Amino acid sequence: MSNTLLRIYPSELKMPFELKKQNSGCMELVNKTDQHVAFKVKTTNPRKYSVRPTTGVVPPRGSCVITVSMQAPKEIPADYHCKDKFLVQSVVVKERTSLKDIHPDMFSKEPGKIVEEFKMRVIYIPANPPSPVPEEEEEEEEEEDEEIASIDSDMDYEYKPPSIFDAASRQQGYTSGSQASYDEVENSKAGLSKYLDENKKLQQELELREKMASSVGGFSDRKRVFFALKCSYTMDFL
């Protein structure tokens, strides 16, 4: 038989359970009628539980919260099973009924009097249950890891270590847009070395021809010989 006076939440009293620590649970009584309804809360184990308030009056369409405190348990029951139960009794009362007017006889069953009863059992739940990680957060972390891995891969792909030729080019003053090839640099170095050697030989030959010219033909012959040799070596280098 469903209750017509009070709606009680929840239908089972869930009590946090923790060894050697007192915990509390709550229930809410909601008046479904346009009349004042008095209530009384009972339990099968009054020494174990403290109920506040145990009695009261709920105004029309109003509500009342009941707090149930459990003494600190000394041991864990088998399978966390609890045999304790609570009983909530309710009855319609006059408009001006106060807490002082409530007495035990008010909830006694008599002919023509409606007294509703709601029984609820106690269920133990862990006091500090582990908080599971939402699946959305796990997926976001995986996506972030994939993005980081992708970025690292791109960086490794784009990175090019400087070569020996790049270092040599910077020392010679080459820019990235007009760098000579490695072979061209080597050929230029070889040509320069050859030119220096031939220039040295030219100087030696000139000195020899100067001596010969001074004794035979004079300064004009020496000048013509120097000009001819210089043009010959310059053409060879180019």
Automatic annotation (TrEMBL):
Keywords: Coiled coil
Protein name per UniProt: MSP domain-containing protein
GO biological process: endoplasmic reticulum membrane organization; endoplasmic reticulum-plasma membrane tethering
InterPro entries per record: MSP_dom (IPR000535), VAP (IPR016763)
Gene Ontology cellular component list: endoplasmic reticulum membrane; plasma membrane
Coiled-coil region(s): 185-212
Organism lineage: Eukaryota, Viridiplantae, Streptophyta, Embryophyta, Tracheophyta
Keyword Coiled coil: yes
